[in-house]
Amino acid sequence: MVLDELRTPIVLAPMAGGPSTPELAAAVTDAGGLGFVAAGYLSASDLAARIAATRALTTGAFGVNLFYPSEPSPTDRFDTYVRELAADFPVGDARYDSDDWDAKVELLVADPVAVVSTTFGCPSSAEIARLHAAGTEVWVTVTSVTEARHAVAAGADALIAQGAEAGGHRGVFVDDPADDAADPLGLLALLQLLRAAVDAPIVAAGGIATGAGVAAALSAGAAAAQLGTAFLRCPEAGTAPLIRQAITADTPTMLTRAFTGRRARGLRNRFMLEHPDAPVAYPEIHYATGPLRAAARTEGNADAVNLWAGQAHALAPELPAGELVRTLTADAKKALERALSSRIQTY
């Protein structure tokens, strides 16, 4: 498996919508981890160009992350919300698309990469078999034991366990508003439950920002740690200046559907607080709020833009990605050594 060949058990989270760049993916791969190219919101042709650009920068293995398409939302679920937004903000067409899923799968079968991961759902067994035949591993993002069992049964090679601490969109297969009343599983609890329920390598994701965090995930049974927010301030990342600055503050995060119609974690701001009852309608609301988010970024208005970030965002350093990987690796090794020498031997 690709995980067994990495020089360090650090995986770059894809971070679609801006932060993901070929330069960032290549830097993480070249430092011994596994870089990822985010395919979300790109056309298949644009993804092909990103893959080619990444290959031009590294000879190492890297992955591509796909958004599994959701079902279209009925118009009456979101049209009132969009009209209300239009009274105060520029809005776009609340449209549905499949994020070019079929064309991207065809591209990755014809031009394979080391790993294809998915978010928001699990490919069919037939799709996974086609990717396997092309020499590609398939990793599926899961947030529960039920999702994990589904992914393993479909043929997934590894699971990305996304804890509630993670920044950006929750990777749930079905974004059910009935689940809002229950607390989503934190990473440590999720790791323990998955280790007891399924036999598959697990990549831990959510709130990991330091070497000690990486060590904790490995100690809990993960084969590797996936970090996203920790890389947002790297010069190779395409992070907007507004977000680079915002994540340095000790601002609380919260889950919201206000910007996209799907629950996601970001820095708490006025737009989130003023729209706590945004409907479940992804990607329709994502496209509707595109113009207002773009305007907010241009104006430097942090109160009207999605500032996706995990709960440990204030720990994100301003370092080149390769240096960050090496620092995380060294610190994780020290943390594991300390834990073994100072705790285990006392029993």
From TrEMBL:
Catalytic activity: 3 propionate 3-nitronate + 3 O2 + H2O = 3 3-oxopropanoate + 2 nitrate + nitrite + H2O2 + 3 H(+)
GO molecular function, one term: monooxygenase activity
Cofactor(s) recorded in Swiss-Prot or TrEMBL: FMN
Domain of life: Bacteria
Annotated InterPro entries: Aldolase_TIM, NMO
Keyword Flavoprotein among UniProt keywords: yes
Pfam families the UniProt entry points to: NMO
Keywords: Detoxification, Flavoprotein, FMN, Monooxygenase, Oxidoreductase
Keyword Transmembrane: no
Family the entry assigns: Belongs to the nitronate monooxygenase family. NMO class I subfamily.
PANTHER family: NITRONATE MONOOXYGENASE-RELATED (PTHR42747:SF3)
Protein name as catalogued: Propionate 3-nitronate monooxygenase
Lineage: Bacteria, Bacillati, Actinomycetota, Actinomycetes, Mycobacteriales
